[in-house]
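Protocol step 4 of 5: obtain the predicted structure for the target chain.
Materials: sequence only (see below). No template structures provided, no constraints applied. The aim of this step is simply to have a reference model before the mutagenesis design in step 5. Sequence pasted as it appears in the construct record:
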Amino acid sequence: MTFLSILCALLIEQLKPLRADNMIYAEIKSMAMRMETWFNAGHASHGRMGWFLMLGALMIPTAGIYWVLIHYNLTLVAFAWNVLIVYLTLGFRHYSHYFTSIQLALSAGDEPTARALLAEWTKLDTVGMDVNEISRIAVEKALITTHRNVFGVFFWFMMPVGPACAVMYRVSEYLARAWNEPEHMRNEAFGLFAARAFYWIDWIPVRLTAVAFAVVGNFEDAIYAWRNFAHRWYDEAIGIILTAGGGAMGVRLGTPLETAARVVVTADMAIDDSDSESDILPGDEPGVRSLQSTVGLVWRALLLWMLLLLLLSGAIFLG
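Step 4 output (structure tokens):
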């Protein structure tokens, strides 16, 4: 049922993608804001309480409906419920129009349009960015978004009571951002637990995604970059995704705050020339062609995940 549920949800999303500003997502965002308003009194324990209450309010009904349907042998209805939850938690097509439009604009030499689209997508200041910079940030955003909106959901949906676990993953990912990234929430104790909780929830999925990128791309460079450079990112999970993904495609990814793509050597650091290559992230500067490479990498990784799911489902069915 797991494989078929994901397959059907993917097909439905290809035909009718769910808008990122749909009513259900808007209600979850509103609920997160209310939790922050009600519980944020400046202590991390309040954030922990709000996190558990919000996750419980969404996971318990999801799991309860699933259990009732299974208990009464309503297999087809349970299957439909699974498809609905996967469809709501997946985000394969939520932002793909940005990436595709940026790719088309750069291919046509229309850099101003590409900058405007990238700014709208990432909320970054893109003024003055050249083609390489636009391409790099678009590739980074695509890899991270694909992991969090697709592959992470796949992993947790395979767990017992899969629909509730998929909801847990997507909501915890949102709370980690909503309670830490906005200007008024930065350095607030309230969001510490949400960030830490998502770190552990995403610990295994992020590494499986990196392995998938390595398997379907340049395996040697992906593993080399992952092992030697991922820890240099402030956010380890992002470092793993970008180093493995970039290595798999043969491009260097990184941002000024996440210095895996460049190592600053100070005057008091003694560098052995024979080892200097270990400080250079493998690959070329991202360009327009890197956008097409990203599309290919993501689709190959998706097919790999689906193949593994099919084999696992078959083994469980036959066993």
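Step 4 remarks: DSSP finds 13 helices and no strands in the chain. Confidence is low (pLDDT under 50) at residues 256-277.
Proceed to step 5.
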